[in-house]
């Protein structure tokens, strides 16, 4: 069952122009941050979105929650056209689709206690009657395993991991059906990351949440998602069931990414070999993506045809879609 359906979404930003560009009348270029992305989020699943820094993950996430208006494409939430929502319907959408950010500190008001922050979220959307707000705040803190006295304290009094718990509690306050988490643990110490990841897993199971989990860390994706979409330079190059995709990645880019993941307990020789197989070369500029398949300049199996046309994301004889003309079966 599809909760959120994305069809052909693109988002471009005007590139910054230097004085020379302006004086010489060079045409304004565009950063192709997200290009023609189609994707469905199924009710109750955790969908991972992975890709290198700058490939458009955050831009895509922001399009999903309408922090950015896409330049092209359509987004449907429970069948409704998200980009056309107005008034109450838009407020309802804003309530049901919540975002959790990498740095909750930036989105928490430093002058408000945690209790007031949660109470505010509860009252903006009138989630519970006024008299029930304090009890609901306690429940929320309990849900994310923070002590009840956290309500009287300010964001700066907490550690990074605890602040992320506050960010999650605030997202949960409005009883969303979908949470989009953009690198929610990448600013945290590795030891703290696991506890936040486990919290997401626990909440997902307990509350039946649908979760889009965005990260550049493939180990997290492997550990906690049902399906995974791999992005490269603004486009999805492969999307499939996580376990199957990790066992037998189809796109050459996905293959290289997975080979580069350090195993949990690697044999020394194995680890060396894996590092050598990592993606080589630089990520091209999204100002001027390579023609055809954007991965072809770095691809070990590229052919001249790969530079001709952008490959469609299709099944190509396999169990899940992949955007590569060299893949069959
Ligand atoms: N507001 C903006 N104005 C101009 N360019 C932008 C803007 N936001 C993002 N970009 C550019 O769009 C591209 C995609 O950026 P985005 O932040 O979506 O990538 P990302 O995958 O989230 O990267 P990271 O892993 O570093 O968070 C980058 O080239 C970035 O420089
Ligand atoms: Mg990002």
Structure summary:
The protein has 329 residues and is α/β, with parallel strands linked by helices. 34% of the residues lie in helices and 20% in strands.
Description:
- The chain is of the alpha/beta class and 329 residues long.
- It has a single domain, classed as 3-Layer(aba) Sandwich (Rossmann fold).
- It has 12 helices and 10 strands.
- The chain has helices at 19-23, 57-64, 87-96, 104-107, 114-124, 133-143, 160-173, 190-207, 218-224, 242-247, 252-259, 268-276, and strands spanning 2-14, 30-42, 46-50, 72-77, 80-81, 97-100, 178-182, 210-215, 227-232, 235-241.
- It is globular and about 65 Å long.
- It starts with a strand and ends in a 53-residue tail after the last helix.
- Residues 264-276 have low confidence and may be disordered.
- The structure holds adenosine-5'-triphosphate and magnesium ion.
- Residues 57-58, 182-183 line the site of magnesium ion.
- Belongs to the ABC transporter superfamily.
- It is found in: Cell inner membrane.
- One of its GO terms (molecular function) is ATP hydrolysis activity.
List the helices and strands and how they pair.
Elements: E1 2-14, H1 19-23, E2 30-42, E3 46-50, H2 57-64, E4 72-77, E5 80-81, H3 87-96, E6 97-100, H4 104-107, H5 114-124, H6 133-143, H7 160-173, E7 178-182, H8 190-207, E8 210-215, H9 218-224, E9 227-232, E10 235-241, H10 242-247, H11 252-259, H12 268-276
Parallel strand pairs: 3-8, 3-9, 6-7, 7-8
Antiparallel strand pairs: 1-2, 1-4, 4-5, 9-10
Helix pairs in contact: 5-6, 5-7, 6-7
The chain binds adenosine-5'-triphosphate and magnesium ion.
Adenosine-5'-triphosphate binds next to strand 2 and helix 2.
């Amino acid at each position: 069952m599809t909760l959120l359906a994305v069809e052909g979404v693109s988002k471009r930003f005007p590139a910054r122009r230097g004085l020379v560009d302006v004086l010489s009348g060079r045409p304004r270029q565009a950063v192709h941050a997200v290009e023609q992305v189609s994707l469905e989020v199924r009710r109750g699943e955790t969908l991972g979105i992975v890709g290198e820094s700058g490939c458009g993950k955050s831009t895509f996430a922001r399009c999903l929650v309408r922090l950015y208006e896409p330049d092209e494409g359509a987004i449907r939430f429970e069948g409704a056209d998200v980009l056309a929502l107005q008034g109450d319907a838009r407020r309802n959408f804003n309530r049901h689709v919540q975002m959790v950010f990498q740095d909750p500190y930036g989105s928490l008001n430093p002058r408000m206690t945690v209790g007031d922050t949660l109470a505010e979220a509860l009252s903006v959307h009138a989630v519970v009657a006024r008299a029930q707000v304090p009890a609901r705040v306690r429940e929320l803190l309990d849900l994310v395993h923070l002590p009840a006295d956290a309500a009287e304290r300010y964001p700066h009094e907490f550690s990074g991991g605890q602040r992320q718990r506050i960010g999650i509690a605030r997202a949960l306050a409005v009883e969303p059906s979908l949470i989009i988490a953009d690198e929610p643990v990448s600013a945290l110490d590795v030891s703290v990351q696991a506890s936040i990841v486990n919290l997401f897993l626990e909440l997902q199971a307990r509350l039946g949440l649908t979760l889009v989990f965005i990260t550049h860390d493939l180990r997290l994706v492997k550990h906690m998602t049902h399906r995974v979409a791999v992005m490269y330079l603004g486009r999805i190059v492969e999307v499939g069931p996580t376990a199957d995709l990790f066992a037998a990645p189809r796109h050459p880019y996905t293959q290289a990414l997975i080979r580069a993941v350090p195993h949990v307990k690697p044999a020394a020789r194995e680890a060396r070999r894996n590092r050598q197989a990592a993606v080589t070369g630089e990520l091209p500029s999204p100002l001027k993506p390579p023609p055809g398949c954007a991965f072809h300049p770095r691809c070990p199996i590229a052919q001249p045809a790969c530079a001709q046309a952008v490959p469609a994301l299709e099944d190509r004889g396999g169990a899940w879609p992949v955007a590569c003309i060299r893949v069959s079966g």
